[in-house]
Amino acid sequence: MLNVDLKNRVVVITGGTRGIGLGIAEAFAAHEAKIACIGTNQKTLESALQTICNTRNAHSGKTPLSVQDEVEGYICNVAVTEEVEKTVEAILKRFGNIDILVNCAGITRDVPLGAMKDEEWDDVINVNLRGPFLMTRACSKPMRRAKKGRIINITSISGLIGNKGQANYSASKAGLIGFTRTVAKELAGKNITVNAIAPGFIETDMTAVLPEALKHEIKNRIPLARFGRPEDVANAVLYFASDEASFVTGQVLTIDGGMIR
Q1: pLDDT value at 213 more than 90
Q2: What's the rounded Cα separation, in Å, for the pair 1 and 12?
Q3: Which end of the chain is more exposed for a tag (fewer CB within 10 A), N or C?
């Protein structure tokens, strides 16, 4: 675990209810941050909040926290302007400020280009690229007023090298990299850093359903010969969110076990 001080920082995490997003939320909880966790399914959100609180309790040494004390959940479709603005307003009312934004919400609709439907393209672009735009626009307003902030976007190696059957996903993640670098320049004068992380194959529900033969093939292409873990990504997020990374902005960190080089 990184030795960074994030105690009482307010962090907003989209897609924080499962997979990489939940791993990131747990990492912040272990560092005693205050967490606004955003998801789209109430049952999954409630389960995630309990997991986050359990992690928070285990590392804080305090008496057990209820999910309403320092961890709060929000149902929000990040691709819808009105929902994003309402949610960010609620977070500000609840916590008073926003120190860190992690844009992790993402979906896939994998189909070869020739068979891809308009809605399969639009759905992925809306969540994976429009979502970070809306969340960043809304959350950067209080950050600009405070003249400080950290924004971390979770992109993918698919946005760097492409991937068959993922024209929509790869385009959204490549767009997120361009968005990151542009916004980093725009917000630097307000002491707000904006960075991205491009994970490779990480052990999540998404990779768990891959056929064993395909998993074996993929691992043979990874020099470290294994899939990454959510905490591998979370540790990098913690660094970008910390004071130690105050002079780092507009960067894309690849976490893929050496798969692309």
Answers
A1: no
A2: 20
A3: C
**DSSP classification of residue 63:** S
Beta-carbon contacts of 78 under 8 Å, excluding residues fewer than 6 positions away, are 14, 38, 84, 103, 105, 127, 130, 131, 132, 134, 135
Quickly list DSSP for 151-203. Answer: EEEE--THHHH--TT-HHHHHHHHHHHHHHHHHHHHHGGGTEEEEEEEE-SBS
Give the model's pLDDT for residue 65.
57
Instruction: Fill in the DSSP letter of residue 36.
Output: E
**Whole-prediction pTM:** 0.94
Per 3-state DSSP, what percentage of the chain is helix, strand, and coil (rounded to 5)? 50, 15, 35
Cα 98 to the center of its chain, rounded Å: 15
Which residue among 28, 74, 133, 169 is the active-site one? 169
CB 195 within 8 A of CB 141: no
Annotation marks residue 169 as catalytic:
yes
Residue in the structure block whose two tokens are 């309402």:
86
CB atoms within 10 A of CB 185: 11
Segment 179-198 shows an average pLDDT of 98
Residues of the chain above pLDDT 70, percent:
96
Tens digit of pLDDT for each residue in 97-139?
999 999 999 999 999 999 999 999 999 999 999 999 999 999 9
User: Strand 252-255 relative to strand 192-199: parallel, antiparallel, unpaired?
Assistant: parallel
Mean pLDDT, the chain, rounded, equals 93
- The Cα 202–Cα 179 span in angstroms is 23
